[in-house]
Amino acid sequence: xxxxxxxxxxxxxxxxxxxxxxxxxxxxxxxxxxxxxxxxxxxxxxxxxxxxxxxxxxxxxxxxxxxxxxxxxxxxxxxxxxxxxxxxxxxxxxxxxxxxxxxxxxxxxxxxxxxxxxxxxxxxxxxxxxxxxxxxxxxxxxxxxxxxxxxxxxxxxxxxxxxxxxxxxxxxxxxxxxxxxxxxxxxxxxxxxxxxxxxxxxxxxxxxxxxxxxxxxxxxxxxxxxxxxxxxxxxxxxxxxxxxxxxxxxxxxxxxxxxxxxxxxxxxxxxxxxxxxxxxxxxxxxxxxxxxxxxxxxxxxxxxxxxxxxxxxxxxxxxxxxxxxxxxxxxxxxxxxxxxxxxxxxxxxxxxxxxxxxxxxxxxxxxxxxxxxxxxxxxxxxxxxxxxxxxxxxxxxxxxxxxxxxxxxxxxxxxxxxxxxxxxxxxxxxxxxxxxxxxxxxxxxxxxxxxxxxxxxxxxxxxxxxxxxxxxxxxxxxxxxxxxx
Length: 485
Ligand SMILES: Nc1nc2c(ncn2[C@@H]2O[C@H](COP(=O)(O)OP(=O)(O)OP(=O)(O)O)[C@@H](O)[C@H]2O)c(=O)[nH]1
Ligand SMILES: [Mg+2]
Prior knowledge:
The chain has helices spanning 2-8, 11-35, 67-96, 101-176, 182-185, 187-202, 209-221, 226-241, 248-267, 296-309, 324-337, 350-363, 383-397, 415-428, 446-454, 475-483; strands spanning 284-289, 314-319, 341-342, 368-373, 404-410, 432-436, 458-462, 470-472. By secondary structure, it is α/β, with parallel strands linked by helices. It has an eight-stranded mixed β-sheet with strand order 3-2-4-1-5-6-7-8, with helices on both faces.
């Protein structure tokens, strides 16, 4: 066999084939080394890096150059291999006949051709590498885009899950803190003048002058105020004259009706924060006022939690800049109710702080701004004058603001509450009020006097310190709880 090959294929051809094969192996190994070089990590340009989204870490496996490119390079290498074979043959011929000028010319021709072909191979190899890098970059860009889209979707899902968890926490916060019922909150008032009234009007005794005298005495001792007590008595006397009332049970029903009428005339069917009229642009600005200690800050905190639980977006404005503790107290409520807060430096201008809160609400498209205010000033400045200034500033911050001037009065102060309500209303044009601390007093009758005199709707009543203790005022429910025996 060996002898047959030796005869059929001259030795220089075998040498040439071996050389070509070696050249091809070297070229192939060089290319493999290039493609295995570790890829530098892909960095997102600064403009494409999104806040909160980690630039994705992308690993793209090596991508092959286009087949047509590889084929061209291979063809050039084949041509080179063939030329090398030819050169070896020419050199062997020259070796056999060194004096042959034809053999010499042949060698020269193949050497020049080989140099040209080597340049061609280099060129094609460079082109293949460039094409490979381009394909690699394209694949990496596509992978990066895909990873970014995925990262954004994951981030969005995370934000939404967090929002849902916060909503749930808020809802549980409002629900779990089961407060008192209105009836429990009114227990003291019921055990005060209402107990005497119920005892008198529930007794099976004659409807005579003595009974009416006793009724008069009870109403005057209740905290409804002289004017309202007189009006209530008048209405009973009128109906007696018209013979509409035949016994004390009927007097009780008539009084209950009259009290519900007084409480409803301003409040309508139920209290709560009224919605903004349809055409009025948000945010709804609520300025909360009242003398010190009545429960403004606490009411704002409870209200924020309630409004949030009802799906409204709320921001708090810490307009009581006169006491450091006031801002901190509101901070605690903002944290509990999970709502943003705007605070200024202690002692700074309250109007400016509330202006900022409204501006932020407008910017962030929030529904409601709850503005806390001071109940007492360090200086001798008049509180009402100060609050008038704040009110004007709110009007500059947002057309129509404040939409609600919510006066907080403390029921335990009885007739003082009524007086404060009148003064505040004269100065600021109160649009609704909140009667707090009904749970701690027998003077709950004060609400009847305030509604009768000022005809301002009661928005909420407070029967304790928990969120659930702030109740939307419902005249019917209120009277039922008041008259319950
Ligand atoms: N029992 C009871 N306490 C209440 C109620 N509302 C508020 N309080 C308490 O009343 C106290 C005063 O409440 P604040 O909210 O600080 O009153 P404020 O009007 O903001 O007081 P200043 O900022 O000093 O003007 C706090 O201890 C509250 O917890 C309520 O309806 N029932
Ligand atoms: Mg306060």
